[in-house]
Amino acid sequence: MALDLLNERGTPLDKQQFDWRELVSIPSSKLNDDAFTRVRIILMNGIESEAVRFSHACARMNGALQQELARIRRIEHHQQTMVNWLLPGDLSVLETTIGFEQVAIEVTAAVAMNEPDEYLAQVYRFGMLEDFDHLYRYSALMDRVHGKDSNNILQCYTDICPGRPTSVEHRHPDDDLRAPYDRRTATPLTKLHALTIMASEHQTHDYYMNVGPTFADPMARQLYAEIASIEEQHVTQYESIIDPGESWLEKWLLHEATEVYTYYSCAKAESNPRIKALWERFVDYELGQLHHVRRLFERIENRDSAELLPAELPDPIEFRSHREFVRRVLQGEVHLRAVGESIVDPAQVPESPQTLAYRERINRSGSPSEAVAAGYVWVPGTELAVQAGPVKGANGNGARRVQVRSA
C-alpha cells in the first residue's frame, strides 16, 4: 500500500532527537553490503545536503521564516550526518567517486524511465549518458592511480564503457538551460524527480571540487577539474527545469515531500536490516517535517497543500541495474547535443557557434578525460591487474577496465 502523504503525520519535531553515538554509528561495509546500499546512502546524503542548502538560501530571503527554517534545518543537518557517516572509512576517494557516478547513472535511469513528461525524460537521458562517460574516465583513473578494478565497487551492476565523450560535453552556459515544467500543470512526480536529480548532481559537483585538489597525480587533478565543470553544467541544467514561479514556501513543501519520497524508496529496497530501520525512521521524521511545513504553507499562503501534494506517494524509485535501458539510450542518443533549451541531432541542427568556440578554447591544451583513457581496454571478469601486451576487444557486460602497460 502506498504511503498516504496527507494523513500520515510522522514523528513530531520535538521528538526528532539525536545523540553523538547514534549520529556516528556502525558504517556500511564496502565488501559485504550490496552496492545499492551505498547508492542509497550517497543519494540520501545529497538529498539532505540540498535540504540544508535550500533552507539557508530561503532564510536569507525570508526573515519571517528564519526561526522555523532553523528548527528543521538543525534536524536535517543531523540526518545528513547520520547518513553520510554510514560510508565506511576504508573507501578511498576514487572508490567513493565511482559510487557517486553509479548513483548518477542508475538513479537518473530510474527517473528517466518513469518521468511522465517526455521532454524532461529526454533531459534526464541526456545527462545520464554524460555521467555514464564520467564513470568510464574515473575507472581509467582508478586503474592508473591504484591499479584497481572499479567493478569491486560497482559489483557489475553498471557497465563501464564510453558514453557521450566528456571532451564534447563542454557547452556555453546558454546551451545548458532547459525549459522548466509548469508548476500549475506538472504532475507531483515530475516535481519530485527534478528535485531528486538536482540534489544528487549538486552533491557530486561539490564533492569533486573538494577532493580534486587532494590528489598528487597531475592527471587526477586535471580530470576532477574537468568533470567538476560538467557537473556544474548539470546542476545548471537540472535547476533550470524547476519552475522559478514557485514561491519559497511552495518550494520548501516540495523539498520535504521529496525527502519523504526518497527515504520511502530507500526503505522499500534496502537489504541491510539495520540501515533499513534508519530509512524507516527518517520516513517518519520527514513526514513530521512535511506536516509542519504544510501548516506554515496553508496559514501564510492561504492555499490548500493538496494542490501540490499527491494523496499517495508515487511508486518508489527502483534501485536496481538499468543496464539494458542504458544500453538502448547509448545506442540511440549518444550523438545528440544541446542547443538552447533543445536536445537535437547535430546532423539536423548544428551546435551553436558559442558552444563550439567555448569547447575549442577550453580543450586547446588537450582534454584530461581523453588522456586518462588512452591505452585502456576491458576484459571480462578478472580482478587482477593485467600487465601483458595489448588486449583487443571490449565487453559491456560489467567487464573490468584494465590499463595496458608497456614493459
Provide a short characterization of the protein structure.
The protein has 407 residues and is mainly alpha-helical.
Give structural notes.
This protein has 407 residues and is mainly alpha-helical. Helix content is 57%, strand content 3%. The chain has 13 helices and four strands. The strands form two sheets. Strands 1-2 form a two-stranded antiparallel sheet. Strands 3-4 form a two-stranded antiparallel sheet. A hairpin with a 2-residue loop joins strand 1 and strand 2. Helix 5 packs antiparallel against helix 8. The radius of gyration is 21 Å and the shape is globular. The N and C termini lie far apart (61 Å). The C terminus is likely disordered.
Structural class comes to: mainly alpha
Tell me about the largest β-sheet.
Answer: 2 strands, antiparallel
Q: Which stretches are low in confidence, meaning pLDDT under 50 for 5 or more residues running?
A: 382-407
| Rg calculated over all Cα atoms | 21 Å
Instruction: Name the shape in a single word.
Output: globular
The rounded distance between the terminal residues' Cα atoms is 61 Å
Give me the oligomer status: single chain
Q: Kindly report the average pLDDT value.
A: 92
Number of helices: 13
**How are strands sequenced across the largest beta sheet?**
1-2
Order of helices and strands: HHHHHHHHHHHEEHHEE
Kindly state the percentage of residues in helix.
Answer: 55-70%
Q: How many β-strands, per DSSP?
A: 4
Estimated share of beta-strand residues: under 5%
